[in-house]
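Deliverable D4.2, example record:
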Amino acid sequence: MSEDREEKDEAVKSAHRPVVTIHDVARHAGVSSMTVSRVMTGKRHVSEAMRERVNAAISALNYSPNLTARSFSSAVRVGAIYSNPSSSNLGAFLMGAFRQSGESGCQFLIEPGRNEEEALQSLHRLIESRIGGVILPPPLCDSEAVLDLALSSDVVPLAFATAIPREGVSAIIVDDYKGAYDMTRYLIGLGHRAIGFVQGDPQHSPSQRREQGYRAAMAGASLMIRDEWIAPGLFTYRSGLDAARQLLGSDQRPTAIFASNDDMAAAITAVAHGMKLTIPRDISIVGFDDAQIASTIWPELTTIRQPISDMASRAVALLSEQVREARTGSKPEVRHVREMLTLVERASSGPVAG
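Output generated by the structure prediction step:
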């Protein structure tokens, strides 16, 4: 009878005892969770000293993973961190990513990261969730701190839409310079000589390349750029409103405005309507991205189509392959995949008046 009671007491204690996870073992040993997993599965590329530290932590914590946990950890999991929840591009990005995650047989997780500090916290959460790879859109794709944390945690990073791909990190890229150059040349071809420009977020590498493309096209046509024709922006609708007031309120108002993305171009369109300007007779307005908002405002927006959904799909497919490759102990092949941009002409642009 006493033995039965002792067994019951021990069962009750076990039920209330904290569950030890692979992350607890990693913290105890001072290594990453991926390293613990490699030791437990007998993978190569782990030093003997590191293996002994992990085994000592397993023993000290009495860690014993169950079959369900092993099955769970064997699934390929990739994550993504987004910086702007109100971006028109986010929906297209998620649509492509989730579609491809199903086709690639992997799990896809997403976390916010509006600044570098929040992004690092989000990446820590994703690492705790046992991701094998992470997609980093601008500006996080250019953050040394975020990239270094991923790499030091045995998480494969992928830079999404960066304009300055980093050696050793795979990336999905487009030619922002050429896209902006082509759009500016298009406006020049319509007879515009006074072309205003709205900059993007200075923390985003594509912003710099888009402005460089605009300036190169203007210089190539020997056209002057007035200081008041360059307005700061942050890739947000609100910043587009401020830019519109500067450009449309100028004594020397440009005949066309090229905004670095569609959200800002849509804001400029709204302000122009409020000023009773007719688009494109009084002012041509063009953008970049071909986000959903480009074809839902009036008039529909001439823009540079960046295939965000397809790019996200390609990113998930590439990253899931690299995570599986890393699990074999091999170093994944770094790839920089370039996607094509297309100029889409709609009703917001037209020949210069007069």
